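Below is how a single chain appears once it has passed through the pipeline. First comes the sequence as given, then the structure the pipeline wrote out for it. We keep one example in the README because the format questions we get most often are answered faster by looking than by reading.
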Amino acid sequence: MSELIKGGAFLLGSVDENTVFTPEDFDEIHLMIKKTSNDFMRNQVEPKIDEIEAMAEGVTLGLLREAGELGMVGSDIPEEYGGEEADKITTMVITENMSLCGGSFATAFGAHTGIGTLPIVYFGTDEQKQKYLPGLATAEKIAAYALTEPEAGSDALNCKTKAVLSEDGKHYLLNGAKQYITNATWADVIVTYAKIDGEKFTAFIVDADTEGVSIDPEEKKMGIKGSSTCSVIFENAKVPVENMLWEEGKGHQVAFNILNIGRFKLGAGCVGGSKRVLEFSSEYALQRVQFKQPIAQFNIIKNKIANMAILTYLMESLVYRIAGMIEEKLEEVKEAGAKPSDIVQAIQEYAIECSISKVFCSEAMDYIADEGVQIFGGYGYGQEYPAERSYRDSRINRIFEGTNEVNRMLIPGTLLRKAMKQEVPFMEAVMGLGGTLKALKDAEAPAESPAREEFYLNNMKTLFLLASGNAAQKFGQDLTNEQEILCRLADMAMEIFAAESGLLRAKKMLAAGESEEAKLAMSMTRCFINDMIPKMEMWAKEVIAGTLEDEAAAKAYSGLRTLTRFEPMNTFAPKREIADAVYDGKKYFLDRF
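Resulting structure:
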């Protein structure tokens, strides 16, 4: 693996677009799965939305089993245990499309196929896999993931649930409570965590019908009302010793690596949800007449539709880029005869990118859902229109899989840990800043795209190094206490990764031919980078102001001014073209089937 394909290394130099997977690289199988899953959601799930939201008995479970018959539930499960053993691209295609029709079904599906099943896939013994995976692959059995507790949310290791070995040595007795557990009412299998003897944080597979396991009533929620969310109570629950998952005291590695996968899959779900909002918002704008013309023709509405499309493009680009990176890494370890520890390392490699997927996409989805309500106006506030449900459902994504605040702090924190382990040449790049800034002092931005956008993007990477390098040198390991600075550095890293993902994809599309879609992709990237640079400048100034003083601060601001020089473009005209392209098909125009 080259240095610049390693996790987090995108911040340290240019990336070759030919190393990046994009939706234009889908093969026939990916496209077939995309159509099958899309048709399933529109034809089978969407007509039953009201029943799902009301939690009508058997509806969600029946749909999950129908999806299982189509092979969409077992995509991550090896063939020898009844699954499809599909690549990560296929899994992301399915995840994206399972989110087209609101968050309730997507939540049930995602919790079952992702965080509920994958701990057994990646960390289970052969006996555990033989016992559980065939039923999970068809949704005949439903999985839940029970990590959160009343006093242990994002701080999972503060878990109070205890496991004590029985006198005969055949069972662990679990005592404790888990909170906000998706699929709890329907679950047959619960992956959970407890501290053996109150100390060793360990994962367990618990059969839901085990004596001593009880489920509290459903939570009353703001959104995703059709999903099951309950507390799970363990009162001397007898769990066979053979149901310990992986190794004693290593539950944190199971939990955090499964959450990493959950984070990048959540990004894919946000892509699907955003495409659907863009679809029904454009349809409504074309139908709604005010002042004797459809509101779609008002330029301010076009601007909204264009911004929604731009964010959807960037989300889609970064999500499938990450999927390609993880798939390549997992294939590498599989060929070498993967052990659970190898899989742990493979997933950990892209922890930064997984957190970026989660935070960037959940916040983009929130923006898109909010704009959808605004386009519908008063109707958007009513439950009879889909904009209202999308708005409520989208909010949970910023809390799922670790809050966005925690994930923000993980992004630069993980990069610095990788730097200290010399896994990425971060400090070397920081030490070379003087020469880089000197070379850029009189540099002019190229006149044409995409060279112009590459120039600006590389400057933003250097700006990140300027801000993060000074913070790392000033605070050292105490930087973990400077949470405001960590969050600003995370904002900068996310914008860079999103912009670069869009740019690399646009370059690949242009290299394949000067199509209208390729030109629009480049236009969307240009608009995003244009709007990104002033934000990056302000964030870097905040970091410098919170880090340096006097002469050191003045020197850093001088370098900042060199890096943030740019001539703003007129984004109004290209955004009108982007909106018109959405209107032409009444949907996100780069969707492929």
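Residues 419-585 form a domain with the Butyryl-CoA Dehydrogenase, subunit A; domain 3 fold (CATH 1.20.140.10).

See the next section for the split statistics.
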